[in-house]
Amino acid sequence: MANILGNLTQALFLGLGLLVAVIAAFHGGYIGGDLYAWGNGFLRFVHTWAGVLWIGLLYYFNFVQIPTMPSVPADLKPGVTKYIAPKALLFFRHAALLTVVIGLAIAGHNGYIVQAFTFGEGFRVIGLGMYLGLIMAAFVWFVIWPNQKIALGLVDGTADEKAKAGKTAMLFSRTNFVLSFPMLYCMITQGNGLTL
Predict the structure, then answer these.
(1) pLDDT digit of tens for each residue in the chain (196 aa)?
(2) What is the pTM of this model?
(3) Is 154 exposed, middle or buried (0-12, 13-18, 19+ CB in 10 A)?
(4) Three-class SS of 49-83
């Protein structure tokens, strides 16, 4: 078992295999009978999984990496900036994209996308959550990531440009951190029938 769990790819395939086993055991009979309900449930699973990855990394950056970096000795910082941060940002931005795409697919699949975006009766909460998620994802792709590329030295920049880009990326990451609280509230309470 140590060989499997010691390898991320093998652990990933093991997790996906267990997912298929659980789906087959608990919902295998429903798949053929009510494809709409099963599809909706599966989309919600993927949306939640991607959201956990996205917001989990957002919280990692804000609770761990950003506050810790000033105390990391200068000779150790490249370990974070050249190896850890770029990989974390790769998963961060793609998890944001997947969360948004699947969230929009759920709204389309269930026929409430227009009502949500127009704050129609019964869809104001999820509509606000969707707008907050879209704003946050836009910040990830169009502000945080371009500035992080400069700050981390993935693209050329002077020392001043790197410092400015790092501060901009941090401020927008912190903005997303703040927005994540109402966004998560809207997403979770909508699913519990708390609507306005």
Answers:
(1) 788 899 999 999 999 999 989 988 887 766 566 778 888 888 999 999 999 999 999 999 999 999 999 999 999 999 999 999 999 999 999 999 999 999 999 999 999 999 999 999 889 999 999 999 999 999 999 999 999 999 999 999 999 999 999 999 999 999 999 999 999 999 988 766 555 5
(2) 0.90
(3) middle
(4) HHHHHHHHHHHHHHHHHHHHHHHCCCCCHHHHHHH
Residues 127/118, Cβ–Cβ less than 8 Å: yes
User: What is the C-alpha to C-alpha distance for residues 36 and 24, in angstroms, rounded to an integer?
Assistant: 16
End-to-end CA distance of the chain: 49
